[in-house]
Design a protein that fits this description.
This protein is α+β, with helices and mostly antiparallel strands. The chain has a single domain, classed as Ribosome hibernation promotion factor-like (Double Stranded RNA Binding Domain), CATH 3.30.160.100. Helix content is 34%, strand content 28%. A four-stranded mixed sheet has the order 1-2-3-4, covered by helices on one side.
Length: 115
């Protein structure tokens, strides 16, 4: 699973940030790595250098084998909250998308009939 991290001009995208974001992605999404070819993370500061409440935004797009990409975003006061929240949202989205793939109609029933 390849991870690509992009930042806008208002965010310092150094090695430390890359390591923290990659760690969060691996923690949340490693169980789906056989279905994911690439993950793109886009980090931005919506307010830039303006005064007021800071608004950090994280958009994560997962490229899946044989399926349309899944994309989620999160806006938060801190960068860590933004990428952590987006990773959680993507985890839930992949649980739904890939869980449907493994669901088999006509499987065993949980009901026990009178015999």
């Amino acid at each position: 699973m390849q991870i690509q991290i992009n930042t806008d001009e208002n965010i310092d995208g150094g090695d430390d940030l890359t390591a923290r974001v990659s760690s969060e992605i691996h923690t949340r999404l490693d169980r789906y790595s056989q279905h994911i070819t690439r993950i793109e993370v886009h980090l931005s500061d919506e307010d830039g250098n303006k005064s007021g409440a800071p608004a950090k935004r994280c958009l994560i797009e997962a490229r899946l084998e044989g399926r349309q990409p899944e994309a989620v975003s999160e806006q938060a006061a801190t960068l860590e909250s933004a990428y952590s929240g987006a990773a959680k949202k993507l985890q839930r989205a992949l649980e739904t998308t890939l869980g449907k793939r493994n669901h088999v109609k006509g499987g065993e029933t949980i009901r026990i009939g009178d015999q």
